[in-house]
Every structure is written in structure tokens, then in C-alpha cells.
Amino acid sequence: MKKLKYIALITIALLVTNCNTNDDGFYNNAFVNVPNLVAIEAHTPTYNVGEKLYVNANFSRYLNDGALLDIYQSTGANQFTFSYVIEKQNSSNTWDVVTVNDSQLDIVKGTAQNGSYVYGICEYNTTNETYEYRVGFPLLSAGSYRLSFGYNSDSVNSVELQSVSPATRLILNINSLITGLDGGGYYHFTVN
How far apart are CA 173 and CA 49, in angstroms? Predict the structure, then answer.
């Protein structure tokens, strides 16, 4: 009887230590690197109160990461999401998150929600087969600001986009390098 208990204990220990902890395989995640899918709209680093800072994304369903990928066919996704945060430097030289009502965002393409960060949603355009996003964030007061795409990310020099795929389809994670950020992953600008 003691022998049976030891065999059962060893069997359970072997089963537990051999569990697959690779969630990416379980959840059907794939990862690719494709640069320059998201950009901060060209502007001088000095804005005026009342202007808007625009973030753009406009990328084809056909991407190349060394091989041609049809991301729409692979994922079935009508949307890709990403996030960014805008902060303003306060009088004690620390940074505070800037928030506005969703109705104050200038949503030209895609959709966006604002809270402690901007949740950007690129929408699939069936006519030209691209995912599109263009949203302006209103700059309502003077000061020193910075924008970062690293809110939900470990990366400092890229944007992480994720497909909003149907339950049984591939979830595609795209790591996209972005230009114009400093070594800490920030785009700095001033509002006068």
C-alpha cells in the first residue's frame, strides 16, 4: 500500500513538471516584426494651445516580414489595437497623464478611447484593403509634453499592435519600430 502511494506521488510530480506553460501556443498567438506601421504626424516639436497631435496608422493587409503575409486572411480580424499615453510635466518636474473626454478626440479614421492611455483601434477598410487609424489628441494647455507607445509594452522604440481576431483564429502581434522617439521611448513636444 505504501508502494502504491509513492508511485502515485511520483506520477503526479512528473505530470506537474511536464506541463506546457507556453500560453502562446495554446492561445494561437503569432509574432512578427514590421517597421513603420504607426507614426506621429509630421509637425514641428512646438504646438499651440488648441492644436491637435495626430497619430496615424495606415497599413495594408499584405505585410512583409521576410515573407509576404496576408494578415486579414490569417486572422480574420477587422481591427488591430495599440495604445499610447500622453503626459505633461508638472511644476515638480514629474509627469502626469493627460486625459480628455472621448468626444474631444478628433477621430478621422478608426476609433479611440481615452482614459489613463489612448486605446487606438485600426479599422479594416474593405475598399482599399488597409487597416486605418488617424486620431488627433487636443492640446488644451501650455507646457512640456511627451508621448509614449510603451504603456502596455516592454518596448521603448516600437508600437505593439494586436489583432482582434474571432475566437478560433490566429491572434497576430505585430512589433513595429517607430521613428522620432528618444532613447527612453518618448516623443517630446512643447505647447505654447
Answer: 36
